[in-house]
Write a structure and sequence with these properties.
The chain is mostly helical. It has helices at about 1-15, 20-45, 55-75, 80-105, 110-115, 120-145, 150-170, 190-205, 220-225, 230-240, 245-260, 270-275, 280-290, 295-305. The chain has 2 domains: about 1-175, no CATH class; about 190-305, Homeodomain-like (Arc Repressor Mutant, subunit A), CATH 1.10.10. Helix 2 (about 20-45) packs antiparallel against helix 3. About 25% of the residues are buried.
């Protein structure tokens, strides 16, 4: 989006006034309208380690696009240059600034750590540079709106090269595309969200029996719930008092106990695999730990009861 806006600026600088295509100016300003929200959601998704874009974010973004397209069709720049040049541009710049402010608020803990001189990760430094770069470009465009229009284009070039140099200067730059430390997502989960997630989790366990997947990991289950792995871990630890392994294993053990009672022809190993365990040793060790008996001892006790 920022590149679209810059492209429009370059076009405006190097094109004679009488040959300027107003549709290109409209596209440039429209791109400017989406820069801020793109920055905000990039920062939020990075800090919250989101792998899936929330539906609310998609709806928000789609709403802005619908507004842009509608305005572009109903009130195009070509026939309403004064409206775009005097009013829409002010609204667009104000919106851009508001989203930058929101982005700074989201990253405030990282900013504070940096100001205090505490150690920050490469990923956190990258996010700071991205926000700062956007802030500088925004400030340049505000200045350019009143005076020296070409300054914004120069600032963008400097910011772009600075970010590229930062990226190339880091030997461990792959970290930039990895997850941010969880300390910035440590607030308690809202009680309403806890209830909703618990209902979805119970459905996955009791109806879909997802625990039978021997390779099920925290990350895969969090994708099914459309939350981050950290939030799922937090839900299990804070609200259920269990780790991920403890939570999943309780369902596997209950399934194994059920099979031991109902399927006398199954071997113990087969029951372990059918319950979601990846190996016989894992099944035996977990069963013994949670039930207090080995699977064979438990099966013998059932037969005695009969």
């Amino acid at each position: 989006m920022l590149s679209i806006r810059i492209g429009k600026s370059v076009y405006l600088i190097f094109t004679e006034r009488e040959h300027i295509n107003l549709t290109i100016l409209q596209i440039g300003l429209s791109g400017c309208f989406l820069i801020g929200v793109s920055l905000l959601y990039y920062i939020k998704s990075s800090l919250e380690n989101r792998n899936i874009v929330p539906k609310l974010w998609k709806l928000h973004y789609l709403t802005l696009i619908v507004i842009l397209v509608s305005l572009g069709i109903i009130l195009p720049y070509k026939t309403n240059p004064e409206l775009w040049g005097n009013y829409f541009i002010k609204f667009i710049y104000s919106s851009w600034g508001a989203y930058i402010a929101a982005s700074i608020f989201e990253i405030r803990q990282v900013v504070w750590q940096f100001i205090k001189g505490n150690k920050t990760s490469v990923k956190e430094q990258w996010l700071l540079c991205v926000v700062l770069g956007n802030l500088l470009v925004y400030a340049a465009y505000i200045i350019g709106y009143f005076h020296l229009y070409y300054v914004a284009t120069l600032v963008f070039s400097l910011v772009f090269y600075a970010l590229v140099i930062f990226l190339l200067s880091k030997k461990n730059r792959k970290i930039i595309f990895e997850e941010v430390p969880e300390k910035y997502s440590s607030k308690k989960i809202d009680s309403g969200e806890v209830d909703k997630l618990t209902v979805k989790l119970n459905k996955l366990m009791n109806e879909e029996k997802i625990y039978k997947n021997a390779n099920l990991k925290l990350k895969e289950l969090s994708k099914e719930l459309e939350v981050t792995p950290h939030k799922l871990s937090q839900l299990l630890n804070d609200n259920m008092g269990k780790s991920f392994a403890q939570y999943i294993n309780q369902f596997k053990i209950e399934e194994a106990k059920k099979l031991l009672r109902e399927n006398k022809s199954f071997t113990l190993e087969a029951i372990g695999y059918e319950s979601g365990f990846s190996s016989k040793s894992s099944f035996y060790a977990t069963f013994k730990k949670m039930v207090g008996k080995t699977p064979s001892e438990y099966k013998t006790s059932i037969l005695k009861e009969l």
